[in-house]
Write a structure and sequence with these properties.
The protein is 41% helix and 7% strand. By secondary structure, it is an alpha+beta fold. The strands form two sheets. A four-stranded antiparallel beta sheet has the order 1-2-6-5, with no helix packed on it. A two-stranded antiparallel ribbon has the order 3-4.
């Protein structure tokens, strides 16, 4: 009896219309999902691994590696008693759903940051934009509160989320640039919660001066906002000497609670987005050089 060398099996989509793929690189083997019918159209388009960035034919991302001494093994045993329930294939649930802002591909990944499987665009800036949108929703929620203490808490929380969002975005943007340019020195652990220090590191690593992304007044205001977040996160909101040394604000504020206003956070959110767009543009030039 001759057995076919290849068997075609249709894969059922999940409830949202996605199908799973896996990176063919052994060191990665990252699992992700895409929604057919979204994204780029055309024949022989490459697929990008959202995790490691590997580019290959989409067929490579569907390959199931042979296992066993002969590459494949099938066995079946029949036992008396209750019938064994059949197991149906189903796609795994992933953590982050993304609609690529560049090509509109609908895809899902583990973690947060990823390359678009269709166009290869990294989603770090898109994630920052989404998080800043959430910050603004927090501020709107604060406006609706009559309780002064709750309103203050929401505004301060929005500030912390704004800074954390930018820190995560910028770290990832630098990591990707370092991997593409071949210079990965310190990129993974390049923090952005202290902007002046991060600015110096960026110049030494990539020759990019982030202080030129906005006006001097705006840069100083962002720096103050980031230092306010530091005081909230590590000092219970009480101004310490480090805060005064970093910001140059009045010594009379020592020991007092930091005052964060809704207007300050709204302005910070807008400036952070402006800096983020500028940084992505500059780092993309570094990666291409």
């Amino acid at each position: 009896m001759n057995f076919p060398s290849q068997i075609n099996v249709s894969i059922r989509r999940d409830e949202e219309g996605h199908i799973g793929r896996e990176c063919p690189i052994a060191a990665c083997e990252g699992y992700f999902k895409i929604k057919p019918g979204t994204g780029l159209t055309g024949k022989d388009l490459p697929c990008h691994c959202p995790y490691c960035g590997h580019v290959a034919s989409p067929k490579k991302f569907f390959d199931i590696k042979p296992r066993g001494a002969f590459g494949i093994g099938i066995s079946m045993k029949l036992k008396p008693g209750q019938p064994i329930p059949l197991k149906r294939y189903c796609e795994r649930t992933l953590e982050t759903h993304v609609c690529c802002s560049n090509c509109t591909l609908d895809y899902s990944v583990y973690g947060i940051f990823a390359f678009c499987p269709d166009c290869g665009t990294h989603n770090s800036l898109q994630i920052l934009q989404k998080n800043i949108s959430l910050v603004r929703k927090q501020l709107s929620l604060a406006d609706a509160q009559d309780d002064a203490e709750l309103k203050r808490h929401l505004i301060e929380d929005a500030l912390e989320n704004c800074v954390s969002s930018f820190d995560g975005f910028a770290r990832e943007a630098c990591r990707i640039t370092g991997s593409r340019s071949g210079d990965t020195r310190h990129c993974v652990n390049l923090p952005f919660q202290n902007l002046p220090r991060a600015a110096k590191r960026l110049v030494s690593l990539f020759g990019v001066d982030i202080t030129k992304s906005v006006s001097r007044a705006e840069w100083n205001a962002v720096h103050v906002g980031f230092m306010q977040r530091h005081v909230l996160a590590h000092r219970g909101g009480v101004i310490d000497q480090q805060y005064l040394d970093e910001t140059g604000e009045s010594r009379n504020l020592l020991g007092r609670r930091v005052a964060v206003t809704r207007v300050d956070v709204e302005h910070l959110a807008g400036t952070v987005l402006e800096i983020g767009n500028w940084l992505v543009d500059k780092l993309s030039l570094v990666a291409k050089a």
